[in-house]
Amino acid sequence: MPKKQVRYRDAGVNIDEADQAVSRIKKLARATFTRGVLTDIGSFGAGFQLDGWKKPVLVSSADGVGTKLKVAFLTGQHDTVGEDLVNHCVNDILVQGARPLFFLDYFAVGKLDAAVAEQVVTGISRGCRLNGCALIGGETAEMPGFYAPGEYDLAGFIVGAVERRALITGGNIKHGDVLIGLPSNGLHTNGYSLARKLLFDVAGYSPKTFLPELKCSVGEELLKVHRSYRKPMLALLEAGLLKGAAHVTGGGITDNLPRVLPKGLVARIKAASWPVLPVFEVLKRVGNMPEEDYRRTFNLGLGMILVVGSQKLRAVLRLLDALKEPYHQIGAIIRQPRAVKARVVYE
Q1: What rounded mean pLDDT belongs to the chain?
Q2: pLDDT in tens, 205-216
Q3: In 3D, which of 146, 24, 158, 5 has the Cα closest to residue 88?
Q4: What is the mean pLDDT of residues 125-130?
Q5: Rg (CA), the chain
Q6: CA pair distance 259, 252, nearest whole angstrom
């Protein structure tokens, strides 16, 4: 008796659906191509040509969207998390002075739905176009039994470049330098495990619950797109006005700002010098959160912190005003014993 034929589809992998997804993704990716792109989507490797650079330093970063994806699953809205991913990665390399060049994504799912994949990559494509960054490749992986039905994982990898002489290391930050905070528009892509627990489990809200203090539903608040700071950052970098910058991600201001400071320095921050967004006040109230934990989990309304020399402060503020970029002067750098690790203190 002949044995039953077992196909790849019987194991849960649908090659036809994958082909359809790739076909849709190609159109979205090609819309982001810049002059440096040398290969089409579908090549085994992606090629990018560096033109016009003298002594370029390549700066790279990889990240994911984290459990913000759970909110996308709950709401069925998948066209923003990709833009979150791109903006997060762009901000990570901007703080070292790098201009974004190209981006690759990793999309993994248990059962592939070409329409959902297209929504996700629509967000990635939009983020790349807005940041002047080419989406030149990636991976779409269908792995039956690895993810819960209707769920997926998303990660990204970015490469940028900066002239060696313009690389921002924070090494020349010193006593008396000024700290400027650029506003966030919400949680960005950090603290979602705690935010979901507080809002959905503790408070009992649903994504559709409208909160007057937020002026929107819980789902709308949680899916606000992680801001890109490309425009103000590149303007400041081109003007030579930045000594350092910190992208406020996981760990909040408390853990991220010291990453760009030399030993022997303290960032003294005036905690009341900027408005805390309502969503953070809601989370603190619902969870009765300790102050330290609160500050180390959320960005509290600041997504990027700039370190500038006091003598250049006026020029920095003029430039930000010209760009209509809101800002807050939040503190200064002070000395401590050189052997002591850099840290943040609040007053």
Answers
A1: 94
A2: 999 999 999 999
A3: 158
A4: 98
A5: 22
A6: 12
Can you tell me whether residue 346 is helix, strand or coil?
Answer: strand
Q: Which residue has the tokens 């006091």?
A: 310
In this prediction, residues 230-240 reach a mean pLDDT of 97
- Amino acid at residue number 114: A
Q: Give the chain's length.
A: 347
Give all domains of the chain, ordered by start, each with its CATH number: 8-166 (3.30.1330.10), 178-346 (3.90.650.10)
- Across residues 331-339, what is the average pLDDT? 87
What pLDDT digit, counting tens, does each position of 80-121 carry?
Answer: 999 999 999 999 999 999 999 999 999 999 999 999 999 999
State the amino acid at position 299 in one-letter form: N
Using alpha carbons only, give the angle 294, 258, 242 rounded to the nearest 5 degrees. Answer: 115
Round to whole Å and give the CA distance between 322 and 214. Answer: 29
Residue 311 Cα distances to 180, 242, 316, angstroms: 14, 12, 10
- Joined tokens for residue 161: 């470049």
**For 169-206, what is each residue's pLDDT tens digit?**
999 999 999 999 999 999 999 999 999 999 999 999 99
Strands (E), the chain: 56-64, 99-109, 134-142, 152-163, 178-183, 210-211, 216-217, 244-247, 265-269, 302-308, 328-335, 343-346
Residue with tokens 């969503």: 279
Cβ(323)–Cβ(231) below 8 Å: yes
Structure tokens given for 215? 């002026």
Give CA torsion, residues 88, 94, 95, 98, to 10 deg: 140
Q: Give the predicted TM-score (pTM) of the model.
A: 0.94
